[in-house]
């Protein structure tokens, strides 16, 4: 049961990704400019911030932890900065997160959870809130790039942004694409806890003249344990009217984690 709960909660986290109908893949062409400054990189990256109001989609998810692998598709609806809602087949399980709550219920086992972001943070090994989840899954920096001082370099085919003064408890690396200036990868290391979170943006698509993720690979490692999640977005539409029906059925047992 705990394994099923964890998979559902991970699904809530990873399904805040955005797209639209009539999309086309974005070509990652661009030449590295070794003289570009960190301020210029941050400015170009901020120009690509995704702007939308609502989303509806079907999201294909492949989840692996150790010998356990599962693949499934969920219905997803989002109102930016306010609500993430998803529903499994026939509504057998539903989840909804808002800036201050994480909720879900499971009709197969007649159980529900109503709590905060502690469990989500523990799964991925990074303290999360609603905004950080959105940023990670839209190809935006998990932390506001204007809140620190960065230095720029290059690595293989990407620009690299990292804080001038890396903290011992948390090391950050942002790899930025030289063609469209969205993230190629975000890497967060916590050496003392032997934790690592890496989010690789394998491909992007053009949606209503915006650049949004198309395929994402997430890897969360703690000591010798690893969770990997791959996402593919299908049948997606933006800025349509959406509803978020969610009511925990009476008589269900609360899950205490």
Q: So what's the overall shape? A: globular
Low-confidence stretches: 14-22
> Approximately what portion of the residues adopt beta-strand conformation?
over 45%
CA-CA gap between termini: 12 Å
Share of residues in helices: 10-25%
Structural class: alpha+beta
Give a summary of the structure in a few sentences.
By secondary structure, this protein is an alpha+beta fold. The protein is built from 4 helices and 15 strands.
Description:
The protein is α+β, with helices and mostly antiparallel strands and 257 residues long. It is built from four helices and 15 strands. The chain has a 15-stranded mixed sheet that branches. α1 crosses α3. The relative contact order is 0.24.
Throw out a few tags for this protein:
single chain; 257 residues; alpha+beta; 15-stranded mixed sheet; 4 helices; 15 strands; globular
Describe the secondary-structure layout:
Elements: H1 2-14, E1 24-25, H2 38-47, E2 54-65, E3 68-79, E4 83-87, E5 93-98, E6 101-106, E7 111-115, H3 118-124, H4 130-138, E8 150-155, E9 158-163, E10 171-176, E11 183-190, E12 195-207, E13 210-222, E14 225-238, E15 253-254
Parallel strand pairs: 7-15
Antiparallel strand pairs: 1-12, 2-3, 2-14, 3-4, 4-5, 5-6, 6-7, 8-9, 9-10, 10-11, 11-12, 12-13, 13-14
Helix pairs in contact: 1-3
